[in-house]
């Protein structure tokens, strides 16, 4: 599995929560900060403005996608001048305060929601993302993302047999294609940042190797050989771009993978230890407690075996 796919499979928990919202102007809705989630806004039709807390407004038109990787609070409105009238909305809450409204011809329709992250799921790849990612799906090279937006539009505005299963699957694709588009176009500087790391052939080769085979007895020398560099230059480049030295990242990824297996499977601890490169349950338990400050068994008992099912709902909002 490649690095981005691997990261998303590990840090996500449950299904994305979403709501189709029809707005009738003038309108403005405040969204609360949700630090443990990646928020998303898709403009299905019409236009609006997203005003991040403490930042300049971002104007959006039909087809635009916005990701809020760090769950930043913001206002979504028809105009920056329109004040929010409803109480703040938490897109991860069970009880959305977005009320139904009788708006036969709304001026704007948006798909709003959030992807919840595992408590320990702040992978540095996600931490490296900006507060707001704005993507114009009509731009060149974003045809795949535009297709997903069109399919979400069709499924959410004309529900059919299987829509409740289709929406979460399409939202997973939306997150993947949006992040791929950002990493393909990002320029975070000449030497640092995960976008740079994934474009650097040597560092990317080492990362892919760690993710493909976390149980392998990697060393700085063996990873440097994959990168085509000597040890010191490789270690320096890896640390500057990834944010951790190679061996520390390897240990961190092994523990992150072990945490996912503890949450999502009933595999015995000995099997999990073997799958992430530890020769005994005791060795895994020591490393796991060092990272998470809790023994693996107690960590497992704090999570249900199956991820919680997230529901999709259509709502309308108006004055």
TrEMBL record:
PROSITE patterns reported for this sequence: HTH_ARAC_FAMILY_1, HTH_ARAC_FAMILY_2
Gene3D superfamilies attached to this UniProt entry: Homeodomain-like
Family annotation (SUPFAM superfamilies): Homeodomain-like
Domain HTH araC/xylS-type residue range list: 204-302
Domain of life of the organism encoding this protein: Bacteria
SMART domains: HTH_ARAC
Name listed for the protein in its UniProt record: AraC family transcriptional regulator
Organism of derivation: Amycolatopsis lurida NRRL 2430
């Amino acid at each position: 599995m490649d690095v981005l796919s691997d990261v998303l499979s590990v840090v996500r928990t449950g299904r994305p929560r979403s709501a189709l919202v029809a707005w009738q102007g003038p309108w403005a809705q405040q969204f609360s900060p949700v630090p443990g989630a990646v928020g998303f806004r898709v403009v299905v039709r019409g236009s609006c403005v997203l005003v991040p807390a403490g930042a300049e407004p971002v104007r959006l038109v039909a087809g635009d996608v916005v990701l809020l990787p760090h769950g930043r609070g913001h206002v979504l409105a028809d105009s920056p001048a329109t004040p929010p009238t409803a109480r703040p909305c938490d897109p991860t809450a069970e009880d959305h305060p977005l009320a139904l409204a009788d708006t036969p011809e709304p001026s704007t329709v948006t798909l709003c929601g959030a992807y919840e992250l595992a408590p320990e799921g702040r992978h540095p790849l996600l931490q490296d993302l900006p507060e707001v990612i704005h993507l114009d799906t009509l731009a060149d090279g974003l045809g795949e993302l535009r297709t997903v937006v069109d399919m979400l539009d069709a499924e959410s505005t004309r529900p059919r047999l299987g829509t409740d299963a289709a929406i979460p699957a399409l939202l997973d694709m939306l997150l993947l294609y949006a992040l791929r588009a950002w990493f393909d176009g990002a320029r975070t500087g000449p030497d640092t940042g995960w976008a740079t790391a994934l474009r650097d052939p040597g560092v990317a080769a080492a990362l892919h190797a760690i993710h493909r085979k976390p149980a392998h007895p990697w060393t700085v020398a063996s990873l440097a050989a994959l990168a085509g560099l000597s040890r010191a230059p490789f270690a320096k480049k890896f640390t500057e771009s990834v944010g951790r030295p190679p061996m520390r990242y390897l240990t961190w990824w092994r523990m992150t993978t072990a945490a996912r297996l503890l949450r999502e499977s009933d595999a015995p601890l000995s099997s999990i230890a073997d799958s992430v490169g530890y020769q005994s349950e005791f060795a895994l338990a020591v490393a796991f407690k060092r990272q998470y400050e809790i023994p693996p068994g107690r960590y497992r008992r704090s999570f249900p075996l199956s991820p919680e099912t997230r529901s999709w709902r259509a709502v309308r909002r108006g004055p």
